[in-house]
Design a protein that fits this description.
Blueprint lengths: L4 E4 L3 H9 L3 E3 L5 H6 L7 E4 L8 E3 L5 E4 L4 H6 L1 H6 L1 H8 L4 H4 L4 H5 L6 H4 L41 H7 L3 E5 L5 E5 L22 E7 L1 H4 L2 E7 L10 E9 L5 E9 L6 E2 L1 H7 L6 H8 L15 H16 L4
Parallel strand pairs: 1-3, 2-3
Antiparallel strand pairs: 4-5, 5-8, 6-7, 6-8, 9-10, 10-11, 11-12
Length: 328
Amino acid sequence: MQPFTYVPVADAAGAAARALAGAQFIAGGTDMLQLLQENVVQPQELADLNGLGLAGITEEGDGALRLGALTRLQEAADHPLLRERCAVAAEALAASASPMVRHMATLGGNLLQRTRCLYFRDVSTPCNKRQPGSGCSALEGENRHNAILGGSEHCIAVQPSDLPVALVALDAEVLIQGAGGAERWVPVEGFHRLPGDTPEIETVMQDGDIILAIRIPAHATRCRSHYVKVRDRASFAWALCSAAVALRLDGEGRVAELRVAAGGVATKPWRLIRVEQELLGHRLDRDRVRLAAVWASEGAVTRSGNAYKAPLLQHTVERAILELGGLA
């Protein structure tokens, strides 16, 4: 690990100034410390954001929920507002990492978690995300955990976080403050970037940007929702595949509103619009859901080790919708 300077910051402007001068941010540190130990990142300075007062969950006047970026994962998972109105988010958080990590990691940090691709974490191997232009070792290497959706010839690394998948299903937004103090709302669905030929650029964040909050709109809190995560073991394992579903039925039992997102299979949280379209306006039944779920893997590009993810994705989406609809 390279030596670095640790500097606590008391306001967003000071944090932004540090970042523009080359510092990297740290809050819970659960991902940053691993990146430091593995020499994936070698900052000269770490700016601690914990003094910015960005924790807590509140209800806004219109019924939307605002989640402070420095709220710990476990605090959010246990919060009654989230558990009652946005079950998919609470379930995704509860399925993340381990209790020890959840008590330290923050919501904002979880959105920015770096990939768990073996080659990104191993500095002795080529990785375009870590060292642009060096190549992607996963294309022909060990790719059991890598993406079948949203990849390119330059990168097939999965975005590993559970929470952003749930937030896409909830139509949530992220509040970002720029280095100059201006604030902007960005849909979570558009927060992470596809790798294309610049896989090192992972999000829409710019130098000096700070995540202030996440907002779940009121219309999403009126939906029933559910998260299903398939993984190798029951604790501290990243998703091989996950599905987040938010659903509202009309007075006649037809699907009036539906958002479906997948994780563990794509280079970013992946919205399954075709699955939604196949079910909107219809009553749910097992056959219809099964046929709709087949579209979940539309456009998938599989490789030697991850071909199993295409059928797994279909079954996971089917299971999540059936469980939410009371048909499982």
